[in-house]
Amino acid sequence: MFKSVLVFLLAAAFADPLAAQAPILSVPSQVPATGNAERADPAAWQAAMPSLEIVAAFIAEKEERGEGGAHIPRATSEFASGEEVYFYVSMANVARDPVGELDARFSIALRAQVRNETGEVLSPWLDIHRYEGDMTMSPDDPEYFQNWITGGLAPELPPGRYQLVLEFTDMQRREDRARVPVEVVLDLVYPEP
User: Structure pTM?
Assistant: First the structure.
């Protein structure tokens, strides 16, 4: 199913505020914060903040952009077998290492799986990519713990309705309870040619 996997390695160290208004296709469970912390202390904030949160996720137009260069949702979820499914995901509560530093690193692992329209698993999990980079903003920036990611996959599927499941894991989280993966489910349609 993933014979021709295309991954476009684009990641940024901040959220795309215009794209955040798009609907979330699947809302993952989230491990709650462990306590209160002052945002002025990034290390304490990171230790107390909830697990990775999906703010927006959608199948995106790869070449077109909206106002201010924002990613925009694709008009249809119909694809030809092997056609690239390009996606946009923005997230909050992304850990940094070393937290509080201007050039702190982020690391988010992505796996993918194909399921049928009722959620039955059709393919094993496939490790796709690890998005990594250095922060370009100061720790006091309100978006310091946010990221957005784009990528593309080209599953070769016969006609039918499917779910493309993207699983994100924040690899910088030190606490096991907060390192749980979160899923984004994209609905795909492959009509008869």
Answer: 0.84
